[in-house]
Structures are given as structure tokens and as C-alpha cells.
Amino acid sequence: MKTPLVEKEYITKINESGGNELTASLSYKQVSNCMKQIGYFGAAEFFLKESDEEITHYQIWADSANDLGFILDIPSVKPKEKPMGIKEAFDFYYRNEKELLDYYNKFYSDCDDPTLHQILLPFIEIQRKSVGEAGDFLRP
Fold it and tell me: Helix 8-37 and helix 86-110: axis angle, to 10°?
């Protein structure tokens, strides 16, 4: 086994980041199922696509962990909500994307490792765009 190329505290944060992406994926999959149940098939498709994107984000963290000399944990995760209306679904989408943006911004600002900064910057950009998109959905 390789010696990790990052400090233990960063390994914890990277594992947490992967867990956040898996939780988002399962949450959006559940929201998709809820939207299908109430007949919003376009919204169901949107959230299923979001779920797939979150799995891709998880895999980026898994690959990055491997490059840094450790194996990313697969945590136990549970979807967060079961919205029973389209407004609730998009409110949840906005809150979740904003929480992820805040998390990555804090991780970046608390981190003094330039390699991790390079990994984090694309996530910050993805979340910034997602928060903007989610906000557009909520405009009256």
C-alpha cells in the first residue's frame, strides 16, 4: 500500500466529499421517483440526469484519492428527502446544491494543499453553475 500524498485531515475531507456526492446522487434518484409518482415526467428525467452527474463527481473523488495514494471510502448513505410536489423538489435541489457549494468553498479556503486546490476548483465551478440554474427554476 502506498503512503498517502496528503495529510490525514485531507483524507477525511476527501472521503466526506465523495460521501456528499453519493448522498446527492441517491437523493436525486429518489426525487426522480417522487416526480414520476405524481406525473412530472420531465422533472423525473431531470433529476435522474442529476443523479448520474453526482455519481460522476463521486468517481472523480475516487480517482483523485487513488492518485493521492489511498482508496476512497464508500459510506452508508441515505437519500435526504421525498418531496411530493414540484416546488418542493426544486427547493430541495437549490438547498442541496447550495450546501455543496458552501462545503467546497470552505474545504478550499481551509486547505493549504495546491494539489487539492486544483481538484476542488472544478467542483466549485460545477456547484456555482448548479446553484444559479436551481435559482432560475425557483423564480416566480
Answer: 170
Q: Which CATH number is 8-138's, of 1.10.10.10, 1.20.1260.10, 3.40.50.360, 3.30.565.10?
A: 1.20.1260.10
Reduced to 3 states (helix: H, G, I; strand: E, B; else coil), residue 44 is helix
What digits encode the pLDDT tens for the residues 22-80?
A: 999 999 999 999 999 999 999 999 999 999 999 999 999 999 999 999 999 998 888 77
